[in-house]
Amino acid sequence: MLDLGDIQRGVLSPRPSPYAATYILLRLDDRAHGRELMRRIRAVVTSAADTESPLGETWVSVALTVHGLRALGVPAEALETFAWEFRQGMAARAAALGDVGDSGPEHWEAPLGTLDVHVVLVALAPDRARLETAIDRARPAYQRLSGVTAIWRQDCHALPTETEPFGYRDGISHPAVEGSGIPGSNPLEAPLKAGEFVLGYPDELGGVQAPRPEILGRNGTYVAFRKLHQRVAAFRRYLRDNSTGPEDEELLAAKIMGRWRSGAPLALSPSRDEPGLGADRRRNNAFLYEHDDPAGFTTPCGCHIRRGNPRDAAVAGVPRLHRMIRRGTAYGPPLPEGALEDDGAERGLMFAFVGAHLGRQFEFVQSEWMNDGLFFGAGDARDPIVGSGDGPGDFTIPQRPLRRRLRALPRFVVTRGGEYCFMPGLNALSWLGDLDD
């Protein structure tokens, strides 16, 4: 069984709907103050066992970059036991992730991807009032320490419609994790081993991964934070320019995503949108691909949700070994309904990946499934929504008698920055606070 009392709640708990969230980045300029921050924040961070709170579905999480662990004085021999991707950092992995051109680290929003980012605080609540209460609880932990400086903040939100900036219902898919007590969103998917998401437990291959010493690594996990700017007006124009009318435009949007904008999956509603299905959490993710749709005539193999989670499909790599917990939180004002020109506002998603294997989960999915199409026989075709790389792309929709091909797909999503982080267990936070030179 998972030690839920030692795991941060932000690792396993699905987010409430609606919700508001804030990301705050901290720099540690004084080692003693950084350790004091760890001791203080330990009292604020919510555990996965703490599901009953006066504030309801509200919690605070904390994670550290490799630079943050160094700033705290974690010994070099301990740092060497962390995943090598984490030790390199996201900016150094940009080429492998497809963060080139406009998405390259040289264009990232400061201070993302720099040596200054040491600690990431995340607060989440069902509404802005309770979010501010959570932040007020966390603020004394760092604000009164002269050696700890808040260097960046990103406020986020989820609309009551549960949609992201492109207009699709978001936050639908969530895996079941053995021992968590939290059901997954797909009743047809067997729970995954806890070690796929929490360090120190057996994973799907039977191995146990955890940094050393054990008190530091056990019950922690890795998190990839990314700020992704969405070119909403360009996406709308592309749909309009490549469709024959409003109905075809919505079908095209569904084929690109794998779901209608309501959240109804093509796998269960292939010819028309069913908003009731899209809103039904018991049914909107209950489907597989291999038996009913192996060739992608209903849900294209190259669409966004099938690339990100091929489910039972026979593809390169066993899908269960690349399963991730994904969370996206919108930022910026929505583009007014029907607008086809960019208004210059920053909008998009703060994306978070949670998992115990940065390499074979986040980086594999990003490089092999999102930015390439070889795994299902589509050459170098990229994901039509979030695919990254140089130049425009193509997208093929299987249909009879002739397939439909979309050409010159521009990049609709641009990386504004990101960080690889380690989210320690609560006991590890105490250990970090008690480090002694």
UniProtKB/TrEMBL annotation:
Its cofactor is heme b. GO terms for cellular component: cytosol. Keywords: Iron, Metal-binding, Oxidoreductase, Peroxidase. One of its GO terms (molecular function) is peroxidase activity. InterPro entries: Dimeric_a/b-barrel (IPR011008), Dyp_peroxidase (IPR006314). Signal peptide: none annotated. Belongs to the DyP-type peroxidase family. This is Dyp-type peroxidase. It comes from Sphaerisporangium album.
